[in-house]
Specification:
By secondary structure, the protein is α+β, with helices and mostly antiparallel strands. The protein contains four helices and eight strands; from the N terminus they run E-E-E-E-E-E-E-H-E-H-H-H. It has one domain: Immunoglobulin-like (Sandwich), CATH 2.60.40.
Length: 231
């Protein structure tokens, strides 16, 4: 029989896991296969780890992507990595994404996200280059990548959940890994790189706080067991 302590919640403790989600798209070439003659782009919607060596299946049970109703079927389910769907099309639309957490870690746990499929480069945020810059990027055949950072947070996890997650810490991001980017201007590249660095620092700081809190809880639990005469 499992110890009741494994199912007790760690009050005041949270554990975060970073992910990336989004889309990347590129123009179809004349010889590329397409489901419909009107389709102009091939694209992928995805949920990925921030660090390429992290295994998201440690805590993710499945990922579901809800495509536009014109796709058959519109609901796509991924039960194992890679969590991504590949399609072709001509229009942009919002894609709801549902991430289901393993029930053994968090019963009925899930995260709901939404991302807009982006087929064309956006104009520079500062207006420099304007639409000519976006047109040049499209003409050059560069893939259009639109991705976002998110954290899956386990608030007051059970002892067992915390131990399982802590046993597989998030890999430390190297400068080389952080240097990978898919944006079209130096300004937006620097902004995204700064966000990723800040996010990794937040995760590392949170993990350190969690380790201290867990040590305090374990000490408190040991004292309680001693007072109750448990082994």
């Amino acid at each position: 029989m499992a110890s009741r302590h494994h199912h007790s919640r760690l009050k005041g403790v949270s554990h975060s896991r970073p992910i990336l989600y989004g889309t990347h798209a590129s123009l179809l070439k004349p010889n590329d296969k397409r489901a419909d003659p009107s389709h102009t782009h091939k694209w992928t919607v995805f949920v990925r780890p921030v660090h390429p060596n992290e295994d998201l299946s440690l805590y993710i049970k499945r990922v579901q992507f809800k495509l536009h109703e014109s796709f058959d079927p519109p609901l796509r389910t991924c039960d194992a990595p890679p969590y991504e769907v590949h399609e072709t099309g001509w229009g942009e639309f919002d894609i709801p994404i549902k991430i289901t957490i393993h029930e053994s870690l968090e019963p009925r746990g899930h995260v709901q996200l939404t991302h807009t499929l982006q087929l064309y480069p956006k104009e520079n945020a500062d207006g420099a280059g304007g639409s000519s810059g976006a047109a040049a990027a499209a003409a050059a055949g560069k893939p259009v990548v639109s991705e976002r950072y998110e954290e899956i947070v386990f608030n007051e996890p059970t002892e067992e959940t915390y131990r399982r997650l802590a046993a597989h810490p998030v890999p430390v991001m190297t400068k080389r890994a952080l240097g990978v980017t898919h944006v079209f201007t130096p300004a937006t590249e620097a902004e995204e790189l700064g966000k990723l660095k800040e996010a990794c620092e937040k995760v590392e700081a949170q993990l350190e706080r969690d380790r201290h809190k867990l040590a305090e809880k374990e000490a408190e639990l040991a004292r309680l067991k001693a007072s109750l005469g448990e082994d």
